């Protein structure tokens, strides 16, 4: 009986972490695309667009989300000079939400 209770608690905890990861990744995309963060001529390791920030945050949340928070001010400053207008932003947000919902509820 104790094993089942422990298993249920771990499953619940895993779902909570999954929900938090999905919401954080969604926020990363909304924030990055809202600030028009994109590729710049300067190059570098973090020279990626808002879509890639969102996808990478979704796949590697524990690493990319804190990294985005650390680099956010610099990325926003670069975006003021080299702003990129996101294409189909609302559509991408809807797709992102649907994927997160499928992952969480199924």
TrEMBL record:
Swiss-Prot/TrEMBL keywords: Membrane, Transmembrane, Transmembrane helix
Transmembrane segments: 12-30, 50-70, 90-105
Identification of the protein by name: Uncharacterized protein
Species annotation: SPHINX/BMMF group 1 DNA sequence
């Amino acid at each position: 009986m104790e094993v089942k209770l422990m298993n249920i608690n771990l499953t619940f905890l895993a779902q909570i972490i999954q929900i938090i990861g999905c919401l954080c990744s969604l926020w990363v995309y909304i924030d990055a695309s809202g600030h028009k963060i994109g590729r710049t001529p300067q190059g570098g390791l973090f020279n990626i667009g808002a879509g890639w920030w969102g996808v990478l945050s979704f796949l590697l949340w524990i690493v990319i989300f804190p990294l985005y928070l650390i680099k956010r001010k610099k990325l926003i400053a670069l975006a003021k000079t080299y702003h990129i207008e996101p294409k189909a932003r609302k559509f991408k947000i809807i797709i992102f939400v649907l994927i997160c919902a499928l992952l969480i509820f199924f």
